[in-house]
Design a protein that fits this description.
2 strands; flat; two-stranded parallel sheet; mainly alpha; Leucine-rich Repeat Variant
């Protein structure tokens, strides 16, 4: 009976809440009502890039002239392709929008209801709105502040504090500080940085008390140290020093104290560092933290620690000295570039870029073969910057990378990075050295070599490309080659783009089967075939080919619709062909297909190439932000 009575009470309470929410919805309001785009915060408005406009003179050929964006960790499967850059078409971005009724609902809940759970939910909802910058919640700061200061439920007060912190309401600092004594570490992670940012000086008393309490958590002590630094609180120096010397305390507590001490009292930090440098690994790491200042005397001691027998200590010293005085590390480059620790090797690469010469460029080149993925990518980035900034070194760097292509095939890491570097440096003279690499045992090399060839096509390797494409088709049909189908297909995608750029008409028969969804080699290969066929039929509106392209563009329904990339590239090809028969199908694609795909923008471009009036620029897609526990209900 008791359980049944509880269930009845819960059900009645739920009905009361639903009735309250219904009362908040304006009569006649639509569930599809959207926010005014002009009210969208600037942080959520996309960096609107314009797609390339139709240009009847546009005809991709020869070396690539546009910008190349290569990620920090370059992978052979994610390199830029000319087919997506010529033309460079940009789909409209999706914008997130919050239904205009949500913030008023949350505000009215805070003002008109006396239910702790709903109040907490409304405040947390406003905290999310502020954090994600979906709307301005300044109209609710008064009621949030009122509940923060006087509500009897601690969870409600914390929720209101979270909303005020996310909205960066400085005036709430004193009230937020009052919650600190009730906060756990998860809450301090957003409370303490706000108090430090707002320069709430009274918080210094609480943070100093934490330093005195050995039972405080590591997170609490680290936040206190950071807060005291933000306040410039020199009164805490002695307390920080006691934490630093607390041998029984957690290392992270001591390091946080050292980090604060070097800012608040650099002279004292330097003096204290001496006693740590001959100690254990953890003691030496604390010494490095204490020496991380602008004092020249500290830099000499840091330099000595760069040769520490413990890799962790050496790498910490390298990073610390690099931040305060990178030039001081030049004498250690000969050993740092081959140090066992990857962080040291990467730091050495950055220094060699800052202070380049021929010898250091050769050292950087050797790092292209590093066993550590990030080290070799950093070395390539540094070489690219040196070549861009130091004209006399550019040809030296290009020559070293070119020689690597002709060297032993065992160094696949160095070959891959050299191919990438030559592509970035627009070195167009190495296609002949890429041909043997098309058969390399590593996919990183065999694909990246084809990538470089398609960037800067060389007529001298046309026969080699033909033979390789035919060979790839044979391999794709061989069941034993199936495990490498993706790699072979990706290589073919680049070589097919080369074939299109060179207008290799004799490969038409090899490309045309890619209209079929069952064609082997993957989506990139089929998309490249559509792009290349468009080039082979440039200004040639062949009826049968145009019909095949239109079939791909229109294949948007059914159990297995065509891939979006293939459809978009087929639309582009129709523009290249100047196929007037395709105008109805392209108009349909512009109107029907999802705006976030490349298909409507490709159709718009192609209609312009055919000579049709340029259609309106596609507007950004908007999607409602969901996941709210309080939601307006329709009447």
């Amino acid at each position: 009976m008791l359980l049944q009575a509880n269930r009845i009470r819960c059900f009645c309470r739920t009905l009361q809440r639903i009735a309250f929410l219904i009362c908040l919805v304006p009569v006649g309001a639509s569930a599809q009502e959207t926010v005014d785009p002009d009210e969208t915060p600037d942080q959520l408005k996309p960096d609107v890039g314009q797609s390339e406009l139709p240009n009847p003179e546009f005809s991709p050929h020869g070396p690539f002239q546009g910008p190349l964006a290569i990620s920090h960790i370059a992978r052979f499967s994610g390199l830029p392709m000319r087919m997506f850059l010529e033309p460079h078409l940009i789909p409209p971005l999706s914008l997130r929008e919050l239904n205009a009724r949500f913030v008023p609902l949350f505000d009215k809940t805070l003002r008109e209801i006396d239910d702790d759970e709903l109040l907490e939910t409304a405040a947390l909802s406003l905290a999310r709105v502020a954090q994600e910058k979906l709307k301005d919640i300044s109209g609710s700061t008064d009621i949030l502040a009122k509940h923060l200061e006087s509500h009897s439920n601690l969870r409600v007060r914390f929720a209101c504090a979270h909303a005020l912190v996310n909205a960066d309401i400085t005036q709430a600092g004193t009230a937020v500080l009052m919650l600190n004594k009730y906060a756990d570490d998860a809450q301090r992670l957003w409370l303490d940085p706000a108090l430090a940012r707002w320069k709430v000086t009274a918080a210094g008393d609480i943070w100093r008390q934490r330093l005195e309490d050995q039972t405080e958590t590591t997170v609490a002590v680290a936040l206190a140290c950071d807060g005291l630094v933000a306040l410039g609180d020199t009164q805490a120096v002695d307390l920080l020093n006691s934490v630093l010397h607390g041998e029984l305390l957690a290392f992270e507590k001591r390091r946080a104290a050292a980090r604060a001490l070097v800012v608040l009292a650099p002279d004292k930090a330097f003096a204290e560092a001496v006693s740590f440098l001959a100690g254990s690994i953890s003691e030496r790491l604390l010494g490095i933290q204490l020496l991380s200042s602008a004092k020249p005397e500290a830099h000499g001691k840091l330099f000595l620690l760069c040769a520490d027998p413990a890799d962790g200590v050496a790498s910490a010293a390298w990073v610390a000295l690099f931040r305060v005085n990178p030039e001081a590390l030049i004498p250690a480059l000969s050993t740092g570039r081959i140090h066992p620790d990857a962080v040291v090797r990467m730091t050495a690469a950055h220094i060699m870029q800052r202070f380049p010469n021929v010898e250091r460029s050769s050292w950087l080149h050797r790092q292209l073969s590093d066993k550590h993925l990030e080290v070799r990518n950093v070395a390539r980035e540094m070489l690219f910057q040196v070549a861009a900034e130091q004209t006399p070194l550019r040809e030296v760097i290009i020559a070293m990378a070119g020689d690597t292509l002709a060297a032993t095939t065992d160094d696949w890491q160095g070959i891959e990075q050299s191919l990438l570097l030559l592509g970035q440096l627009r070195a167009a003279q190495f296609s002949d050295r890429c041909v043997p690499l098309l058969e390399h045992s590593r996919n990183e090399v065999l694909v990246t070599a084809a990538w470089l060839m398609h960037l800067y096509p060389d007529k001298a390797v046309q026969d080699a490309v033909r033979k390789r494409l035919v060979r790839n088709e044979e391999m794709l049909k061989n069941p034993e080659s199936k495990p490498r189908e993706a790699d072979i297909g990706l290589q073919s995608a680049y070589l097919i783009q080369y074939a299109g750029l060179e207008r290799l008409q004799d490969l038409h028969a090899l490309l045309e089967p890619n209209f079929s969804k069952s064609a082997l080699g993957g989506i990139s290969k089929r998309t490249a075939a559509m792009w290349a066929l468009g080039l082979l039929h440039e200004h040639d509106p062949d009826a049968d080919i145009a019909k095949s392209f239109l079939g791909r563009v229109a294949d948007r329904a059914g159990m297995m619709p065509e891939q979006v990339l293939v459809r978009g590239m087929s639309a582009v090809a129709l523009g290249r062909m100047r196929a007037k028969s395709a105008v109805p199908g392209l108009l349909e694609a512009y109107q029907l297909d999802p705006r976030h795909s490349l298909i409507p923008v490709s159709a718009r471009w192609s209609l312009g190439m055919i000579g049709e009036p340029l259609l309106d620029l596609l507007q950004a897609d908007t999607r409602s932000v969901g996941g709210w526990r309080l939601t307006p209900l329709d009447d």
